[in-house]
Write a structure and sequence with these properties.
It is built from 4 helices and no strands. The longest helix has 28 residues. The protein folds into 2 domains: about 60 residues; about 60 residues. By secondary structure, the chain is mostly helical.
Length: about 140
């Protein structure tokens, strides 16, 4: 039986591995003239641990990439117009802000148009909901 850890467990493991990796790097960077200088054998052992931790983090990140298959990856070749009700002040401010940002930061996602901003914002919020309420996975379709 294969056990698939949830997103929060994997994230926690990545955090622990990264913390241990930082501790190892701190030891390797320690002043060799100090009282707690690292011996060659210790340096080799720490370097091996860095390699192991890097491999663990890489595997965990690859798995996390497979788990996050929701809103950010929903793409189609078509567009559909839908009417939505906006607060008029927010709509005006958003439109003006996007127009300004399009000139000053054209490479920033969401600055091409108001529709692009809405697309980015909706994807980000849905991804947040997927992580919070559905273990980081795409919500199933309503049947």
């Amino acid at each position: 039986m294969t056990v698939t850890p949830d997103v929060h467990s994997l994230g926690f493991l990545v955090m622990l591995a990264a913390r241990e990796l930082r501790d190892v790097v701190d030891v390797l960077d320690h002043d060799p003239d100090g009282a707690e200088a690292v011996t060659n054998a210790e340096a080799v052992a720490l370097a091996e641990r860095v390699y192991e931790l890097t491999a663990v983090v890489t595997r965990l990140e690859a798995h996390l990439g497979k788990v996050f298959d929701g809103a950010r990856h929903q793409r189609s070749n078509s567009k559909r117009q839908r009417g939505i009700n906006w607060d008029s002040a927010l709509l005006e401010y958003a439109g003006e802000s996007v127009a300004r940002l399009k000139r000053s930061h054209p490479a920033e996602p969401g600055t091409a148009s108001l529709a692009a901003l809405v697309d980015v914002a909706v994807r980000d919020k849905l991804t947040e909901f997927e992580v919070k309420y559905n273990n980081g996975r795409q919500f199933p379709p309503l049947v």
